[in-house]
Every structure is written in structure tokens, then in C-alpha cells.
Description:
Layout: E1 2-6, E2 14-15, E3 18-19, H1 21-37, E4 42-46, H2 57-73, E5 77-80, H3 87-90, H4 94-98, E6 102-105, E7 115-119, E8 122-129, H5 134-141, H6 148-164, E9 171-177, E10 210-214, E11 220-223, E12 226-228, E13 245-251, E14 257-263, E15 270-275, H7 277-282, E16 293-298, H8 307-314, E17 318-323, H9 336-340, H10 345-357, H11 363-386
Parallel strand pairs: 1-4, 4-5, 5-6, 8-9, 9-10, 10-12, 15-16, 16-17
Antiparallel strand pairs: 1-13, 2-3, 7-8, 11-12, 13-14
Helix pairs in contact: 1-2, 5-6, 10-11
Amino acid sequence: xxLLHTSDWHLGxxxxxxxxxxxxxxxxxxxxxxxxxxxxxxxxxxxxVYDRAVPPxxxxxxxxxxxxxxADLGVPTVMISGNHDSARRLGVGAGLIGRAGIxxxxxxAACGTPVVLRDDFGDVAFYGLPYLEPALVKDEFGVDKTxxxxxxxxxxxxxxxxxAARARGTRxxxxxxxxxxxxxxxxxxxxxxxxxxAAVPAGVFDGVDYAALGHLHGSQTIxxxxxxxxxxxxxxxxxxxxxxxxxxxxxxxxxxxxxxRVECPVPRALAxxxxxxxxxxxxxxxxxxxxxxxxxxxxDAVRPADPMARLAERFPHTLSLVFAPERAPDDPDVSYAKxxxxxxxxxxxxxxxxxxxxxxxxxxxxGVLRDAFDAVRADEAVxxxxx
Length: 387
């Protein structure tokens, strides 16, 4: 069975100030063409269909168009909700849409109930695990420990129990939206840390033939059977080095997996350039970036006059301007933002405690801070679901 694995469409999202809806529509067209021309038997969409719980109308219309075009192909599609989606909204009409071969899986309670498709070698069971917010689903799965690993492990126990009751030789595919250990993150993903831990081990998916993952925006192989497709379009300059693609996965009669990357159309290359303003304007080696979307980091000791306007004369698609004067780390003028770069909310709070009272928090106090951050994030998730 030939599967096309994609995820993280983020319909409705902009790239800095650039509206990406046209590029997203082009991707949908590319997806449909790939399905038709490569003889795909099933399409997998592993969450974050939309960029936010209440997407703009234009994004909903594009999603509706995608559903119609996929249904017209007569190729089944299995789709789960991600942490950016409103599971309840995305799942409206799932039963009716399922009759057209578009199988939306947004209910955690149904994770052990697969979509079963058949090829010449028998059944393939597709289990959809929507994004599992631990604070919201721990009671459903009967886990005491609130964390991603606990709820995912419990969900996978249901998957394995259902699979064990099926005919010998039934192959299996899981769609999941999570941060798996070994994956490389980028700046455009929303933090899903709980209890100071964001990642779960790849071993949680043991026992299935293929795990089609979503959430991380870079296409990557955790193991031969556990992969991220990544987002089809860039959503931050941290993705400048990404090859945007989908996985074309062949699942043979015995459940062995081979995978091929299918490149996605990207509207414009990304470039991150760094130096003084005069260096950036004069360096002939940067000519290759003149038509790219550019993030320029200026290292001038003193902020130059009209830097954006001057950069735009050479790099007309400059979207982001960062000032990072080259100073010693202990220089008192090093910016507050730079000191906070790459530090978690927990670390920043602990540093604040240390600054105020002269000593950092002890283990108990660290736990109090961690619980507070988790409670706020869980409350935001509850309010988003209730919208």
C-alpha cells in the first residue's frame, strides 16, 4: 500500500507580513497531483490542519476545497487534529465526511478504533491519535501522571490491544501529533512542554508498522518506521535550511517500510544574513539571496540610519531585521532579549528568583514554578477547546 504522509499545513498562517494562502493553495494542488500521478492509496495528514482554533474564513474555504478534491480522487484520507486545531471544530461532520472517504480523527476516546483499508495483501489498520493535551485527557486514559509520555503510552496500549484482536498479518499505521525524542524543533512550533518535559521516546510507538508524525516542521527520520513529514511551507526563518517535502511510504505485504521524499513547491527561498549594514550591502557573495525572503542581523555597534529601507534596495524581500551589536557577553549593554534567547519560561523564572533574593529556587520551589506554568498552559487549552 502506497501512503502519502503530510502534516502541519497551518492553513491561515502568514509568514511575517506575507499572506501565505496562495502558497498553501498551490501546495494543495501539488498534493492532489502527487496523489493522482504517483498512484497513492491513502493520504495521511498528521495534525495542525489550521493555524489556530478559530481560523479565518479563507482558510476554511481552502480546507473545504482540499476535502472536495481529495474525495473526487476516490483515495481515502485519514486526518487528525493537532495542538493548533480546535478538535471539536475540525471534527464537526466527521461521520458524514467519512462517507466520502475523508476520515477525521479528533476524539481521543476513539484512538483504538481504526480506519481499516484493504489491498491485495490484506487489511491495513490506521489509528488516528489526535493531539493529546495531558491535562484534558488523563482521566479518559486513566493515568495518574500528567505528561505526554503517560497519555501517549495509554493511547498506544489501546492501539495494540485492538491490533492484537485482529487477523494475523494485519498491518498497522499510527498518526500522532507529538514531540518525539530525537526530533529537531524550529521556532515556529508552539511549545507543548508539560512538567518540564516536551519529548516522548520513539519506543512508545513500538508494535506498529509505521508512525506518521506531525508537530515538528522539519522533515526528519526518527527511525525507519517513525518519521515527521514536516510542514509543507516555511513558517519561520529557523526553517531556512529545511527541504520542504512529504513522505511517499510503501508498506509491503509483510509491513516493511520504504520511504521517498517528495519535494513541495516553496514560493521563495529563505536566507539569514549577518554583518554590518555596509558589509551586507557590498558583499558580492550575497547576490544569490537578492530574490529570497531575508532575515538580516545587523552587527553594527551603533544602529545605522534607515537600515530597512537601505537593505530593501538590494534585498527587496527583506522581512525581518534583527540588531545584534557584537559585544562581550558581560557587557552591560547586551540586550535583555539576547540574554533571554533560547531560555525556557521555567529557566527565566528561576533566574528572576535568583536575581531578586540572591539565591535560586530549591527543588520544591522549582516544582511550584513548573506546576504554575503547566496550569496556565492547561487553562489556555481548556479555554481554546471551549470556544
